[in-house]
Specification:
The protein has 333 residues and is α+β, with helices and mostly antiparallel strands. The chain is 17% helix and 41% strand.
């Protein structure tokens, strides 16, 4: 099984770097293997979430995902920014999907849904597969402004998703990201459509199978969005690849957010090989906690978007460490 096969199990990833996932890259394989293991561990421990509030659910989820208790600042950030977006349920066939809550900033949104239906206890992973466009040029949009359609290009794309078994139901956390090609952030008070199609699942020890064809559509409005971010660079910084000799990137901007990072670099002739310079970055908090960062969307023309393993309080961040040992201090905010 290739890295691309595993990513397909976890969720849809930006097509622009699918080709790169086929390349041998040990650090990437470690990341994927950890994600699969975490999904299985969360399944076994899922029943513990049954009586939690929405904020407590997110805190517990991210604590399990990172493998350590959240800091006071991380827990407080979640408590302050989780918002209910519930009250909507859609049933297709035997499967009922309910919109629960969201943790969102201008570039990243984590949306929690609850799935109910037969056979979910036997699955360690469930998710929804976007349908191909009629002209074969891509896939339907998962998230877009109300008034547009799933057939139109959207700047908000599905990143990773995770599923957590909770007895006879499954909580699904869908990560949505603003794509690199657009400068349109998520906006508070604006109605969006969440468009999910064709429920698929991965039973223990068996291939992925389709549980239910159909469409689950919801209207989503964010009450508020976190806007905190800080710039780490005051001058260009060079980082070098640990996998490909002679490959390097000159970084010109590195912005840290609560749920991710936005990086700009000087475009050159490195192509997608330059992505290796940005693998295995970590955000180190002042208490020594290391938060994993993953370059989800990479554009060789000069930009990359990271997603973090769990939310952070920027005020608790000490520095960002790159794979080659380069450290980018976080200024006091």
């Amino acid at each position: 099984m290739t890295g691309r096969d595993l990513l397909a199990v976890l969720g849809d990833i930006d097509e622009t770097f699918y080709a790169e996932t086929e390349r041998p890259m040990p650090s990437r394989r470690r990341r994927i293997a950890i994600a699969v293991l975490v999904a299985m561990l969360l399944l076994l421990a899922g029943c513990s979430y049954a009586v939690l509030t929405q904020a407590q659910w997110f805190q517990s989820f991210f604590g399990q995902l990172s493998g350590r208790p959240l800091s006071q600042g991380q827990a407080a950030y979640i408590e302050e920014n989780v918002q209910p977006i519930g009250g909507q349920s859609v049933t297709v066939g035997h499967y009922r999907l309910t919109l629960e809550s969201a943790l969102a900033e201008e570039r990243t949104a984590c949306i929690r849904l609850r799935l109910e239906g037969p056979g979910l206890r036997e699955m360690y992973s469930v998710g929804f597969l976007p349908r191909p466009l009629a002209d074969g040029t891509g896939k339907e949009a998962v998230f877009f402004r109300k008034g547009r359609t799933a057939q139109e290009e959207s700047p908000y794309v599905q990143g990773l998703w995770s599923s957590v078994s909770e007895g006879d139901s499954v909580s699904i956390l869908l990560w949505l990201e603003q794509s690199l090609s657009s400068e349109t952030p998520f906006e508070a008070g604006v109605p969006y459509i969440l468009h999910l199609t064709d429920l698929e699942a991965n039973p223990f020890g068996e291939p992925v199978k389709r549980l239910q064809e159909g469409e689950w559509d919801f209207e989503v409005v964010f009450d508020h969005l976190s806007r905190e971010q800080t710039e780490l660079l005051t001058e260009p910084v060079m980082t070098v690849s640990q996998d490909y000799p002679g490959v390097s990137l000159t970084l010109t901007s590195w912005k840290l957010r609560a749920l991710g990072m936005d990086v700009e670099f000087e475009p050159g002739s490195q192509g997608y090989l330059g992505r290796g310079c940005l693998e295995d970055a970590v955000v180190v908090l002042k208490n020594g906690t290391r938060v994993g960062a993953y370059p989800l969307f990479y554009d060789p023309n000069g930009s990359v978007t990271y997603t973090l393993d769990c939310p952070i309080d920027i005020r608790e961040a000490d520095y960002v460490r790159l794979r080659d040992g380069t450290c980018l201090p976080v200024p006091e905010v």
